[in-house]
């Protein structure tokens, strides 16, 4: 699914109005019904204090108030008209609400604050949505601070008021919601970790905008969902043999860190690669052969770390390097040798990234379409400090196209930047995956996908998606606290496609 900016969403809104056709007030009603249904399902016994400014987000709030009142749910509406003007659909919905007997509508003027809400009431934030074009200030800002000071749960409609959908919002007044009910599609701002304290849990509500619009519009950002995965998944043919699925080499491990080599080798085996070889320190041979007997093993002449490769690399269709290798100068030298002698894409993680950050010119030696998998700290060490998440993804895109590599920026919504200038946000995974060894599993998995002939971008997108899916399956069995990286390997499954 493409991600759209606020002006594209406005265009989509207008496209639907003309294409369906539907009037804008009826579209607002459809959005309000979707909110009402969600709210009723989640909070069936609560009362609601609804705060509205006078644009279309406020219009949504008024329509939700009416729909809840018609179900005999207690509702108070507070209107903040700092602008001294109102949108047409807001005005229509205000008339409709006033026509309901007992409607409790309070207009707040500068300096007057509402009474503290009933402790069990839910606050609905319908002050401002995607129409925001400047920081909130003045009386509207004071109302935002008033809402944030309450201990009541807050549901934001479309966007938490004050939060920019496409850019960094800074430290201006912004609603801190527990839930955000956003219309039709994720907004960029709802994917950024720095905004997590504002959007809480995000729920995308289908309001029936015309799907045809999406084919007409360009976007550099996309969400990775099952449909995208399905678009490049290659069915395993009945008459295939192991030679059809590549030979992956995992260079990993050092004394005390052989677990990283085991995890990435096992994940590589589960990726569907035809053959997997693990290159490990001499003393690691028994560990790897016992825990991953399906893999072959090459041993380093050094017993405790990776120093030398004495066989040709070109017979391997993909190489993954870094899990648990350490950063000893001999390991660094080997890495430089590989960069200079292997021309196919590499997958680099963990200590390979630490080595790169100490030898930044080597970034230019990376074979085209190599994949690096930094978390935000490793990313800063490689590419400098970024002041916020928006800047970080922009830098990732710039560096991916400059270096002609894929950058997988790991996080809750892992971001994949491709050399073609496209950025993908992953939709699978959970906080239980923030545990040692999780990244080693990802490295092995992506290396195995590359070995099978998937392009680097495909392998990155699929690997991150499958890794998160395995995490979700592991969390369902063990819970987020108890799951460990080995569970990710056990739970790796390719989704079934019809
Ligand atoms: N997309 C869809 O399909 C559907 C969308 N719908 C809903 O419409 C919402 C977007 O509506 P919207 O454009 O009226 O914007 P909204 O956020 O209410 O702002 C209103 C006005 O406020 C102003 N303003 C800006 N910044 C400000 C600030 N900091 N402090 C104070 N004022 C500020 C600015 O006007 P200005 O002052 O610049 O003239 C702006 O025009 C969307 O989020 C969703 O809830 C649904 O109803 C149906 C389907
Ligand atoms: K809002």
Protein model, in words:
The protein has 498 residues and is α/β, with parallel strands linked by helices. The chain has two domains: 214 residues, Rossmann fold; 266 residues, UDP-N-acetylmuramoyl-L-alanine:D-glutamate ligase (3-Layer(aba) Sandwich). 40% of the residues lie in helices and 15% in strands. The strands form two sheets. It has a ten-stranded mixed beta sheet. A seven-stranded parallel beta sheet has the order 3-2-1-4-5-6-7, sandwiched between helices. Helix 2 crosses helix 3, helix 9 runs parallel beside helix 17 and helix 15 packs antiparallel against helix 16. The protein is elongated. The structure holds ligand NPW and potassium ion. In the N-terminal section; belongs to the NnrE/AIBP family. Homotetramer.
Summarize the structure.
The chain is an alpha/beta fold and 498 residues long. 40% of the residues lie in helices and 15% in strands. It folds into two domains: 6-219, Rossmann fold (3-Layer(aba) Sandwich); 226-491, UDP-N-acetylmuramoyl-L-alanine:D-glutamate ligase (3-Layer(aba) Sandwich), CATH 3.40.1190.20.
Index terms:
single chain; 498 residues; alpha/beta; Rossmann fold; UDP-N-acetylmuramoyl-L-alanine:D-glutamate ligase; 17 strands; elongated; binds ligand NPW; binds potassium ion
Largest sheet: 10 strands, mixed
Number of helices: 17
Mean pLDDT: 95
Please report which band the strand proportion falls in: under 5%, 5-15%, 15-25%, 25-35%, 35-45% or over 45%: 15-25%
Which percent range fits the helix content?
25-40%
| Silhouette | elongated
Enumerate the strands of the largest sheet in spatial order, edge to edge or round the barrel: 8-17-16-15-14-13-12-9-10-11
Strand segment tally: 17
């Amino acid at each position: 699914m493409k991600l759209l900016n606020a002006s594209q969403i406005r265009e989509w809104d207008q496209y639907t109005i003309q294409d369906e056709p539907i009037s804008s007030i009826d579209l607002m009603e459809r959005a309000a019904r979707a909110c009402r249904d969600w709210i009723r399902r989640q909070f069936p016994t609560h009362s609601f204090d609804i705060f509205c400014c006078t644009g279309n987000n406020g219009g949504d709030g008024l329509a939700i108030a009416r729909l809840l009142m018609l179900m005999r749910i207690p509702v108070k509406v507070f209107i903040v008209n700092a602008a001294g003007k109102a949108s047409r659909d807001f005005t229509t919905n205000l008339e409709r609400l006033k026509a309901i007997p007992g409607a409790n509508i309070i207009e707040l003027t500068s300096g007057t604050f509402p009474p503290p809400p009933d402790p069990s009431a839910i606050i609905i934030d319908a002050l401002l949505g995607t129409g925001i074009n400047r920081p909130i200030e003045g009386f509207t800002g004071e109302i935002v601070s008033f809402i944030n000071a309450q201990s009541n749960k807050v549901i934001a409609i479309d966007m938490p008021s004050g939060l920019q959908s496409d850019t960094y919002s800074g430290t201006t007044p912004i609603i801190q919601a527990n839930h955000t009910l956003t219309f039709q599609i994720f907004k960029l701002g709802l994917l950024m970790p720095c905004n997590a304290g504002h959007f809480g849990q995000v729920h995308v509500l289908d309001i029936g905008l015309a799907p045809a619009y999406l084919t007409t519009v360009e976007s550099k950002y996309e969400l990775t969902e099952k449909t995208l995965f399905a678009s490049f998944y290659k069915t395993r043919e009945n008459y295939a043999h192991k030679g059809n699925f590549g030979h992956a080499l995992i260079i990993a491990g050092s004394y005390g860190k052989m677990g990283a080599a085991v995890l990435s080798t096992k994940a590589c085996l589960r990726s569907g690669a035809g053959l997997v070889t693990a290159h490990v320190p001499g003393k690691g041979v028994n560990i790897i052969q016992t825990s991953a007997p399906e893999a072959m093993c090459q041993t380093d002449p050094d017993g405790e770390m990776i120093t030398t490769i004495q066989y040709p690399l070109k017979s391997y269709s993909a190489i993954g390097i870094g899990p648990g290798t350490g950063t000893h100068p001999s390991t660094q030298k080997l890495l430089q040798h590989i960069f200079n002698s292997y021309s196919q894409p590499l997958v680099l993680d963990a200590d390979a990234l630490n080595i790169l950050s100490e030898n930044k010119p080597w970034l230019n030696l990376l074979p085209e379409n190599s994949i690096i998998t930094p978390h935000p700290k490793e990313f800063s060490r490689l590419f400098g400090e970024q002041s916020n998440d928006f800047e970080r993804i922009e830098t990732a895109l710039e560096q991916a196209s400059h270096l002609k590599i894929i950058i997988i920026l790991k996080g809750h919504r892992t971001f994949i930047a491709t050399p073609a200038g496209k950025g993908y946000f992953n939709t699978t995974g959970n906080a239980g995956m923030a545990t040692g060894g999780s990244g080693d599993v990802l490295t092995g998995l992506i290396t195995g996908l590359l070995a099978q002939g998937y392009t680097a971008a495909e392998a990155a997108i699929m690997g991150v998606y499958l890794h998160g899916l395995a995490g979700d399956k592991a969390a369902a069995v063990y819970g987020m606290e108890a799951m460990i990286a080995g569970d990710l390997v056990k739970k790796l499954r390719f989704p079934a496609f019809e």
